[in-house]
């Protein structure tokens, strides 16, 4: 992997679709859609950090998504962590951006100085704000979001990322 700021043209974008505590997040399939869009962006490489309890679940969801959409995500990097937070921190340090709900991954990235895009409730932006202060506000809990809410969140997330990259 090319270290952040190391002169490489490719941007490493960590997308964290996993959260046990954040009520305001997107369904896993929606994060896979974000990953697919990032994969198609010029010079962007999507990265997902999986831990043992969800690794197979994620691969299954990814396979289902590919079968349903007939699309491939050729440059996705899946980092299989072993529950060691130091491995996650080392991975995050190599990233150019982190996209995540309000969970430990995004707060770790923020404290490491990695630019973040948070998919947060309005409340979490005040309680658990990040240094980047770039948020997609999710108006409802995951179980209450409709397809329009989800598509708006996906579009807004990608727009923020594209603007950040363009303005570097």
TrEMBL record:
Matches recorded under SUPFAM superfamilies:
UDP-Glycosyltransferase/glycogen phosphorylase
Q: Which Pfam families does this chain map to?
A: Glyco_transf_9 (PF01075)
Cite a single GO MF annotation.
ADP-heptose-lipopolysaccharide heptosyltransferase activity
Q: Name one GO biological process term.
A: lipopolysaccharide core region biosynthetic process
Report one GO cellular component: cytosol
Q: What UniProt keywords are attached to this protein's entry?
A: Glycosyltransferase, Transferase
| Stored InterPro entries | Glyco_trans_9, LPS_LOS_Heptosyltrfase
The record's section on PANTHER family has: GLYCOSYLTRANSFERASE HI_0523-RELATED (PTHR30160:SF15), TETRAACYLDISACCHARIDE 4'-KINASE-RELATED (PTHR30160)
**Protein name (database record):** Lipopolysaccharide heptosyltransferase family protein
């Amino acid at each position: 992997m090319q270290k952040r700021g190391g002169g490489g043209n490719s941007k490493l974008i960590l997308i964290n679709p996993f959260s046990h505590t954040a009520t305001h997040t997107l369904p896993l399939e929606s994060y896979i859609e974000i990953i697919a869009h990032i994969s198609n962006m010029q010079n962007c490489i999507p990265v997902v950090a999986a831990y043992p309890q969800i690794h197979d679940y994620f691969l299954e969801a990814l396979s289902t998504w590919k079968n349903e959409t007939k699309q491939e995500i050729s440059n996705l990097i899946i980092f299989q962590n072993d529950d060691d937070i130091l491995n996650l921190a080392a991975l995050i340090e190599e990233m150019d951006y982190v996209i995540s709900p309000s969970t430990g991954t995004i707060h770790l990235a923020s404290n490491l100085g990695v630019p973040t895009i948070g998919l947060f409730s309005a409340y979490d932006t005040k309680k658990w704000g990040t240094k980047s202060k770039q948020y997609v506000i999710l108006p409802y809990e995951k179980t209450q979001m409709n397809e329009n809410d989800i598509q708006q969140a996906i579009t807004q997330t990608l727009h923020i990322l594209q603007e950040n990259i363009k303005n570097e």
